[in-house]
Amino acid sequence: MTLKSRLALRMFIGVVVFSALLFVPAGSIRFWQGWCYFATLFVPGLLAFAFFYEHHPQMVERRLLLKEKVREQKRIMMLIYIIWPINFVLTGLDHRFGWSHSPLWLTIFSQVVVLGGYVTTLWVLKVNRFASRTIQVEPGQEVISSGPYRIVRHPMYLGACAMFLFTPLALGSYVTFPAFVLLIPLIVLRLLNEEKIMRQELPDYSEYCLRTHFRLVPFLW
């Protein structure tokens, strides 16, 4: 399959799977929080990857990779791939049975934060053409220290963590918040292992770490 076909197929599968995980347990398509969340992710994503396909096709190739090569990363991602869909199913059930009663302002605020987190991940892709979905160091890869990498060493994970924390609230669910929080320690383990690999295999990465002190959260860690 061509790159364009694989990208289109991956996005189509993503739309179908996401819709099934959220709206089927909800028992209704009258779930406006779900539709807003859906639009927040897929509209910017569609526009961004159309741009990347045109201008940075090799980066799109990297983002389509799923198979991790490092043993520790395989275990971490297996847990994430298990927890992530279960959380959306629980969120849909929460909507169906009315376990949570989230105020409108909190839902809207959380939707905005989710959008901000997602835009941050897209910004990282724009700045770092080596940003692969899997942990790897390629021949000729360089240390990126511009843009969001001036603030923290793992800005994509920062954006992802913001999305994890505010996704349940954006979908009107208090009940599933602890389940989404479980993803944060896995992200921390992933980035620590990634840094270990980068220090060993990517020239100048250790020097970059001395200049950019914070791994994930500015002024904290």
Could you explain the architecture of this structure?
This protein has 221 residues and is mainly alpha-helical. The protein has one domain: Four Helix Bundle (Hemerythrin (Met), subunit A). Helix 6 packs antiparallel against helix 8. The longest helix has 27 residues. It is globular, with a radius of gyration of 18 Å. The N and C termini lie far apart (42 Å). The model has no long low-confidence stretch (mean pLDDT 92).
Average of per-residue pLDDT values: 92
Please report which band the strand proportion falls in: under 5%, 5-15%, 15-25%, 25-35%, 35-45% or over 45%.
Answer: under 5%
Architecture (CATH level 2) name: Up-down Bundle
Net shape: globular
The major β-sheet equals:
none
CATH class: Mainly Alpha
Indicate the radius of gyration in whole angstroms: 18 Å
CATH topology: Four Helix Bundle (Hemerythrin (Met), subunit A)
Low-confidence segments, given as residue ranges, are none
| Cα separation of the termini | 42 Å
Q: State the total count of DSSP E strands.
A: 0
Please tell me the total number of domains. 1
Series of H and E elements: HHHHHHHHH
